[in-house]
Amino acid sequence: MKNQEITSEVGKVLERGYSEYDRTFREEFCNDILRSAFEIYQGSSFSAQTQVALFDDARVISATLTPGTLTRNAKLVSSETTGLVAINVLRGQAKLTSDGRSMTVDPLGVAVIHADVPFQLEILPVGEDTQISWIELSSVTDLRSLIRNKSVMVSSNALSDYISFFVDFFIKYANGDISRYLDLSIRQSIVEMLRAFLRDQVAREDGSNKARLANEIIDYIKNNLELHDLGAAKISRNFNVSQRKLYKIFEDSGLSLRDTILHYRLEAARKELASTVEKKIINIAFDSGFNDVSTFYRNFKRKYGYSPRHTP
Fold it and tell me: Model pTM greater than 0.90?
């Protein structure tokens, strides 16, 4: 077993090579360092190469592992820990499961998890040993607040590359003269980059959710134009959102909720006027949700430039 340990100004750098799945590996690396348990696949051969840097409030780990399941043991994590774990797969593939949700971890993305949350990282048998980079930071409460489900996959080559660079750089240079700068500048860089990508992830999720809700509301409006009480109160109750949020969704789209309802009512009336000569205009206006014909005439002419009576 390769065994090297260096104490620097910032912390400790450990390098270990394990050829046997024994108590030393399970306690020294899994329990003490990862604060996890590791079970190899039944019948699989085992080997592990690990490099670890421990400094201040951070753990930086590079590990090459044979297939198995790593289970994060929350009991081994201090109840005062308010940190994050960021896992990047440089080679191979893994599957992370947390709180009933599973995600694939591969070289195209980074899994970020609350450090005090139990999870499983399954190292998959993909024809070669899997190499992972693992960064654990505490005292990053503001970053944790950006992860709503306590775990998230950030799909970014840039973040993946930066984390693997950060791990390699720190392990390589933490025992040299440059070490006194590492705990400040590089740690801050990785924190800022994680913050930027997590905020971007939240923004994309919010944008996607908002767009989906807006589309559902528009479909509801189109299908209920005949309701004379169709408005903010009715729609907010139907979709269980506040009227303030409802107004904001449509303001952000450039067209207010009121104008959106009016637009679809007028369009429905115009299409019916163009397709029939038998139905009275007052009935068409009423069926499109207008309470009086004068309001219908005024808005119709303003929008289309001609009277409902002269619809082509």
Answer: no
